[in-house]
Design brief:
Layout: H1 11-20, H2 35-45, H3 53-71, H4 79-138, H5 143-178, H6 187-213
Amino acid sequence: QILYLKPPWTLANLLKCYKKHWMAVFGYVVPRSLLSTIECLSKHLCTGKTVDSSAAVILLQESKKLLHAFSSRSDYNGVLPQAYAEVSKLHQTLTEVRAALVRSDSEQDLSEDIMVLSENAVCEKMEAMTPNLQNCEEKKIHPSFHVAQENRHQEIWSVLEGVWNTMNLYSIEIFQKLNPNAVTVTAKSSFEEAFLGLQKLLAAVNGIREGISR
């Protein structure tokens, strides 16, 4: 009989009616302190503001309080329990999602901290090793050492060549069994390519070592 705004109501109009008739009507049915809930819902849902997840959790909590308060008067032909169940489901889902995101962020932060600590530990070890390397280089080398070193290089190269040839033969045999027409024996040229690759690798390692020494 007494209407501030006539139906059909939008959410904004409904909340305006609540506030207009709160003291004279609704405050006699539910606790008057719930007016703050009405104002909270109106502020976030009827002003065109974007609602983030934290605000959504608060709005769902306030909605549950309001629906629960009105349930003491009536179930409104079953509409109110259904609405309360849907709001509760949304609140639970959103709370679980936010908790999962917080856990994920915490795990990522921990992982990043571990990576930083690991990198620092490696750097400290490399810094500790660098003076030793420099001290070795600064020592005077006896002429006979060069001869022994050259023989050692030849020995190492011979071993590498044997390993490479063996790997090459095995790979050729495997691929020939898989597809006999697709494989040609190119052991010599492939070995030369490997030699060039090792030279490039050696240059790169030397560059890294010089950078660390600086």
